[in-house]
What does this fold into?
Amino acid sequence: MTPKRLLLVTGASRGIGAATALQATARGYFVCVNFRRNVDAAATTLDQIRRRGGAGIAVQADVGREKDVARLFEAIDAQPGKLVAVVNNAGKLAPASRLEDMESARWESVFRTNVLGTMLCTREAIKRMSLRHGGAGGAVVNVSSAASRTGSPNEYVDYAASKGAVDSFTIGVAREVAQDGIRVNGVRPGFVRTSIHAEGGDPHRIDRLRELLPMRRGGEPEEVAAAILWLLSEEASYVTGSFIDIAGGL
It folds into this structure.
């Protein structure tokens, strides 16, 4: 029997994460569907994976909590096969606000998920995938945002700053593990139709701003997922420390 190729997708119960998990099924991955709170949504993603002939597990864990991340990777370790890919997709966005009206608790919450979560999961992935640790190599894709380039003034400068940190981390760790058989890249979506806009208090944000975009439309989660799966694949075997901007020309 061919050993399973295990893929972890954090925040995979919805949006870009769910689309990535579903597309990964066609690539033959055994998918670990990570979620923080929404059990029903995670179960739906897992059911759709199985309906497409794939296999996987759903594991609850807050990636911003080190103990949760340890438990998440223990669940992965319990599966037959090797971890070969990780998509750090879990993200948090607070309601739109100017900086002077934000409280530090908001910043800590956003950075805990977006930055610390990405770093914790990448660290644990390296321990399992690195050739120097007896792994088979692999790939990591970090889901950043076009906000890391625009700064998202008057709305989400804290979110933008957290994604800027993810970009810097992606470049640094990619160079650090390049000789260990691990590639690390990022995607920077912008104006993609997911529920994160509702979390920011503006569920119709894309329709409101789409005329400002060169392509005059919002993106779909599946379009981002396709780029992520390419970066994970052997087709991108000479790509590391790089980013794909998926923002309609923004």
Observations:
- The mean pLDDT is 94.
- The CA atoms of residues 214 and 249 lie 5 Å apart.
- Residues 104-129 form the longest helix (26 residues).
- DSSP finds nine helices and seven strands in the chain.
